[in-house]
Design a protein that fits this description.
The chain has a single domain, classed as 2-Layer Sandwich (Heat Shock Protein 90). It is 36% helix and 32% strand. It has 4 helices and 7 strands, in the order H-E-H-E-E-H-E-E-H-E-E. The relative contact order is 0.14.
């Protein structure tokens, strides 16, 4: 964006600096305030929307009451990054739906994306997913339920967390 002198470049740089600040300073804590994690996700999505030409089908929906709930940082980002990495079809259309539903101390996260034109290499396939599963087992033992599946041309992640 900066080399092409895009009008979106200043906004993108500000969002990128906010993302980096969160990752460097707040994500090092054992827990973060849920609203901070949601703000991080929303900034990441805004940055990706600037990059993608056909982004009208990139949607995030947040429901429920957010108060002082705390969460382990950066739990959802690998799912969201993969959705943007693999969620574009051969025509350049991107379809990603992210849903966060909060009900007291229960959080439900759903991420659905197209299975697009970028193919995963068999040798490195699933490393990020396996790392995320291990991290969930360590950080939320018996307090999370994760279902990952492919359905027709969609990749679907459903994660339920019991927050502390």
């Amino acid at each position: 964006m900066t080399t092409k002198k895009s009008n979106d470049a200043p906004e993108a740089i500000i969002m990128l600096s906010d993302l980096m600040r969160y990752m460097l300073y707040q994500a090092n804590d054992d827990f973060v305030i849920l609203q901070q994690e949601i703000d991080y996700i929303q900034n990441y999505i805004k940055l990706q929307r600037l990059r993608i030409a056909n982004n009208e089908n990139v949607k995030i929906n947040i429901r429920g009451t957010i108060s002082n709930q705390k969460i382990r940082p950066l739990l959802f980002i690998s799912f969201i990054e993969n959705a943007f990495k693999y969620g574009t079809d051969f025509k350049g259309n991107t379809e990603i739906k992210i849903d966060l539903s909060i009900n007291k101390n229960e959080l439900q996260f759903t991420c659905i994306n197209l299975i697009g034109s970028i193919k995963k290499y068999k040798d490195d396939s699933g490393i990020g997913l396996n790392n995320t599963k291990e991290r969930l087992n360590l950080l939320y033992p018996k307090k999370h339920w994760l279902v990952v599946k492919e359905n027709e041309n969609k990749f679907i992640v459903n994660l339920t967390l019991i927050l502390n």
